[in-house]
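Anyone up for a design puzzle?
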């Protein structure tokens, strides 16, 4: 909240200074009116004065939006481990385009024997690194959110990899979107603790719930 306040205060200061500068530079009378048309033309041209142009969404993220935007039913299976007993559950995932179509947003809700779970995910494309990056926040993460996973296409599978620490132990995680079809796909997570072998942690099978029209609406922002 403090960060939001600082950002808001900075934007207000910048806006005030810009307004004062424009007021000081604006010529009076007919001269100002004569420059009005030129000013408007400059604003229309790239590089002209005025609001910055919207960044064109990358083909890489548009591909994901076309694939995954919509509402999905989820059937999940959690394997038993030293951290949790495992079990099954059901849920829904609403996926849509982010601001300007530059990201993919996911809102996941589920219920299982372990209780209710909610999560919010963001996937975006990093052109300099040529990878997808993700942010994931959920109701079970001790730190609230997890960042750092990067993904690439491996054949027809979208594969993310990440590293971190859990309960004092280092872990590696591999998150895979596979068997992707227009109305279904499978997502699974394999993980390794302290350099041990990769083991299946979670499998979720998704089935499209929304109509084609409703899904199309979620591809636009």
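Challenge accepted. My sequence:
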């Amino acid at each position: 909240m403090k960060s939001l306040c600082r950002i808001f205060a900075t934007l207000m200061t910048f806006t005030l200074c810009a307004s004062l500068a424009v007021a000081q530079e604006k010529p009076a009378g007919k001269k100002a009116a004569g420059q009005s048309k030129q000013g408007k033309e400059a604003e229309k041209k790239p590089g002209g004065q005025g609001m910055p142009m919207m960044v064109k969404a990358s083909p890489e993220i548009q591909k994901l939006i076309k694939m995954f935007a919509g509402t999905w039913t989820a059937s999940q299976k959690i394997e038993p481990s030293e951290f949790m007993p495992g079990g099954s559950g059901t849920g829904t995932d609403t996926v849509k385009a982010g601001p300007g179509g530059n990201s993919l947003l996911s809102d996941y809700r589920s219920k299982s024997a372990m209780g209710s779970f909610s999560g919010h995910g963001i996937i975006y494309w990093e052109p300099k690194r040529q990878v997808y990056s993700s942010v994931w926040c959920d109701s079970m993460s001790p730190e609230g959110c997890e960042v750092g996973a990067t993904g690439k296409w491996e054949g027809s599978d979208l594969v993310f990899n990440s590293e971190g620490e859990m309960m004092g132990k280092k872990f590696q995680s591999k998150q895979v979107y596979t068997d992707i079809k227009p109305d279904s796909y499978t997502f699974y997570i394999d993980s390794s603790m302290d350099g041990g072998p990769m083991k299946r942690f979670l499998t979720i099978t998704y089935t499209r719930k929304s109509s084609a029209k409703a899904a199309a609406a979620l591809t636009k922002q």
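A detail worth pointing out: The beta strands are 70-78, 87-97, 103-112, 115-126, 131-138, 145-154, 157-166, 169-181, 184-193, 199-208.
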